[in-house]
Design a protein that fits this description.
Elements (H helix, E strand, L loop, with lengths): L1 E3 L6 E3 L13 H15 L51 H10 L3 H23 L13 H12 L8 E4 L23 E11 L2 H24 L7 H23 L3 E2 L2 E4 L2 H20 L6 H5 L1 H33 L4 H8 L3 H7 L1 H12 L4 E9 L2 E9 L1 H7 L2 H25 L3 H21 L2 E11 L4 E13 L1 H25 L95
Keywords: Membrane, Transmembrane, Transmembrane helix
Protein name: Zinc-ribbon domain-containing protein
Pfam family, one: Zn_Ribbon_1
């Protein structure tokens, strides 16, 4: 009898131990089913026969299986600690440079800065000693004269000289004024006014730069003795020197502001300090740039080229200004009425000319190149105004003197231009560096042309006590080289000299920096020739040596090994190659057989 699997309910034979469908063991279930079947097979006598109901297989309840327990999850662990403790953040290159600068040798920088500052003080004392025509009763004492002289000297560094009348000076238009009686408005008035005087004494500028160079050179020797430091050790020392010089000039500018009889004098200390900073930084960097290793300059060839071209232009400019200064001083010394000017003011005109001698040299250089010296005056008043302009060029020079003066001026211009061209050609290593040096020279000439002039400005006004405005007037005066014409003529002369000078140097037998020394290529060694051995003439076309199949080697000299040459098999023509012809040596053709006689077969 079939029974059912308690697990899957599939019918299986009673004697089967395992389910034929799910494969599970069904022994116990089968035994129970057999007992039930035996009991059902026993007939009950009292009960009628009833058809047996189909057996329903018992399905054992499957207990739910609990899910596996999840182990507790540990809290997330952060990143592993580094193998070493991180150090502090490194500063930027600029921050590192400034740190080394402020931790450097300030004592040596102070010794270098003492030279230019001491020059200003000594010059101010020397200019403040004379009384400049004052009587026994000095109106302006030594202290005021010292401060005025210091204010004038600071113009050499870019400062100004401004004069301003204090308010309420007491000048009026009544009978009690200093202008005399006869015009009385019945009310006193105040006069206010001011003016500025602009004249850069380039002699003081040159001496100041020379004193700074002396101090910085001493500092360079001091730095060279020490152990080599950072690649920018020279630039760090230059910054220290520039900062000290700037601070000292600022203090001198604040001191040089006296007030004399209600008139205030200002030296523009901020502008003086700015000019001193730029000049001292440029000079110190130019002198100290070679201190320390050369890795930085090797990594920046453009900066090295610019510095070398600037040095070339400065050398040429120094020679040119020295020559023009001699010519200008001789010209001023030959002027008339110098003795009268000496007796009237008590100051020698030659001393004033020495203070502004580079200014006169720049004017002479511009005039020799054809740039006119212009003077412009402009004024305004209640009664009208006016404007005047005068120029002094080569034509005016011929009218004042003679034609030979014009020839001499042009000759001076040619010599100055050739000096620039020759110096640039001999010191420049490339054509680009030569042109760069010429451009720097032109820029320096234009700067000196702008600074070498003279400028004054004055203004004044009056006001009455009733609040009504009085009279006002003002005027300006400028003298110097014309900037547009200086640019034009300077460009023409410098370009021509830069182009012609290298050829002149080669014609004169000199050598420029751009031409390399001649080198002779190494040739084969020449064997000595005996005097008795005949010398065969050299033919223009060398004879072709005969080619022998087997070269003969001289006796006693081993034959050099010949490398094996791989043989390439010749291409064998196939039946499909049309018009093929075998390459290589051909076998000799067979000799033809003689024809048989016709009667030989008989």
């Amino acid at each position: 009898m079939a029974s059912y699997c308690p697990h899957c309910g599939a019918p299986s034979p009673a004697e089967a131990r395992f389910c034929m469908r799910c494969g599970r063991e069904r022994v116990a279930v089968a035994s129970d089913a057999s007992d039930v079947s035996d009991a059902s097979e026993a007939p009950d006598a009292s009960a009628p026969e009833v058809s047996a109901a189909p057996e329903v297989p018992e399905v054992s309840a499957v207990s739910p299986v609990a899910p596996p327990a999840v182990p507790p999850v540990a809290p997330p662990v952060g990143p592993p600690p580094p193998a070493y403790a991180p150090g502090p953040a490194r500063p930027s290159p600029v921050g590192a440079f400034l740190g080394r600068t402020f931790r450097g040798d300030w004592a040596g920088a102070a010794q270098a800065a003492l030279w230019p500052v001491g020059l200003l003080l000594v010059s101010a004392v020397a200019l403040g000693i004379p009384k400049y025509g004052q009587d026994s009763e000095e109106f302006v004492g030594f202290g005021d004269r010292l401060r005025i002289a210091l204010a004038l000297l600071l113009q050499a560094l870019g400062g100004g000289f401004e004069v301003k009348a204090a308010s309420g000076s007491g000048y009026g238009y009544g009978s009690g004024t200093g202008f005399g009686g006869g015009y009385d408005q019945g009310a006193a008035g105040d006069v206010t006014g001011g003016g500025s005087f602009s004249l850069v004494p380039l002699t003081v500028t040159v001496l100041w730069i020379a004193a700074l160079c002396v101090g910085v050179r001493l500092l360079r020797g001091r730095l060279a003795v020490r152990a080599p430091g950072s690649p920018t050790a020279g630039l760090e020392a230059a910054v220290r020197v520039a900062l000290l010089v700037t601070g000292a000039v600022l203090l001198l500018g604040l001191f040089a502001q006296p007030t004399i009889a209600g008139v205030e004098i200002s030296a523009s200390p901020a502008l003086s300090a700015l000019g001193a900073l730029l000049l001292s930084l440029a000079v110190a960097c130019g002198v100290l740039h070679r201190v320390g290793p050369d890795q930085w300059w090797a990594a920046h060839p453009g900066a090295r080229t610019l510095l070398r071209a600037t040095g070339t232009a400065l050398r040429a400019l120094t020679v040119v200004l020295a020559l023009c200064s001699v010519v200008a001083f001789i010209t001023v010394a030959r002027l008339d009425d110098l003795d009268q000017a000496w007796s009237a003011d008590g100051v020698s005109p030659l001393l004033v000319a020495l203070l502004v001698l580079p200014n006169l040299a720049v004017l002479a250089l511009g005039l020799s190149w054809g740039v006119p010296v212009g003077a412009r005056a402009q004024g305004s008043s209640p009664y009208g105004g006016g404007y005047e302009h005068h120029a002094f060029g080569l034509s005016e020079l011929a009218d004042v003197t003679n034609a030979w003066a014009v020839v001499g001026a042009l000759a001076l211009g040619v010599v100055c231009a050739l000096i620039l061209g020759v110096v640039a050609a001999r010191r420049s290593t490339s054509r680009g560096e030569q042109l760069l040096a010429a451009g720097v020279f032109l820029g320096l000439f234009l700067i000196l042309a702008g600074l070498g002039g003279l400028g004054t400005e004055m203004s004044g006004s009056t006001s009455s006590d009733f609040g009504s405005s009085g009279l006002s007037a003002g005027g300006t005066l400028d003298a110097g080289l014309s900037f547009p014409e200086a640019l034009l003529f300077g460009l023409l002369w410098i370009s021509a000299a830069t182009f012609v000078a290298p050829y002149l140097v080669r014609v004169a037998g000199g050598r420029t920096g751009m031409s390399a020394p001649p080198t002779v290529p190494p040739g084969p060694p020449v064997s000595p020739v005996s005097p008795v051995s005949p010398v065969s003439p050299v033919s223009p076309v060398p004879p072709v040596p005969p080619v022998s199949p087997v070269p003969q080697t001289p006796v006693g000299r081993p034959m050099p090994p010949v490398p094996p040459v791989p043989s390439t098999p010749a291409h064998t023509p196939t039946a499909y190659d049309l018009h093929a012809f075998p390459l290589g040596p051909q076998p000799p053709a067979a000799a033809p057989k003689p024809a048989a006689a016709p009667w030989s077969g008989l």
